[in-house]
Amino acid sequence: MRISIFLFLCSFSIFAQNPKLEVKINSIATFPVHNSATEYQINYQIENKTANELLFFLIPNALIANSASSLTLFPVYKMYQNGVFENMDGPFFEYETEDDLEYSKIENKESEEAKNLLKKIQITQGTIAMDNYKKYKENGGESNDLQWIYYRLRLLNNIVFLKPNETKTFTIKTLWDKNRYIKNDDLEFYLDQNNTIEIELILDLKTNLFQDQLTKEDLQKIKENPNFISGQFTSNKMKIEFKD
After folding, report:
1. Which of 20, 46, 72, 92 has a CA 20 to 30 Å removed from the CA of 62?
2. Which pTM was predicted?
């Protein structure tokens, strides 16, 4: 029994040290937008460490805070100050499209520029929803739930494919509103520029949690594909600065 347990622990240790994916933050660049916003571009890579093609659900060009990350398709980020993890909902938020990001950059949301861009975003979303519905019906789909159809194709259109030993690079664009205080319910955090502040990315890849957004046939294909993976994969930490 002791030998069996020892062998199990050894094999578990080897597996833990050899993840299928490696996530690495390569650089972080900042660009001033206006007096109350700075754009951050986080450049990172995902490497397939196996000899097999790997597939997984992910929207790689946006991010979401760890405290708000349940059932998400985005990379999750964690913030550390002087080496201590602080589970804050911020300072960054997700922008799934370039238009979403550009809209958030506009200071005056009552301006014609903001109104026109918002209208464009709404029209684009509506067009995508109707195209998804039409495509779904043309392929024999039976549901009439427009929202379910939209999210199903959104999910299926955000499958990342990595060839054996392939590395893909991505850029996350987000904004900081220059507010150093972040309040989550009764908890308050402060981004102190005198501290060493670091960011870490986590790919929290899921399959079973999205089963309500997929058909039985979709789920069966995923289940039968051993290279469609789930699991958590954590990047290196990188220093990030917040300057006024």
Report:
1. 20
2. 0.89
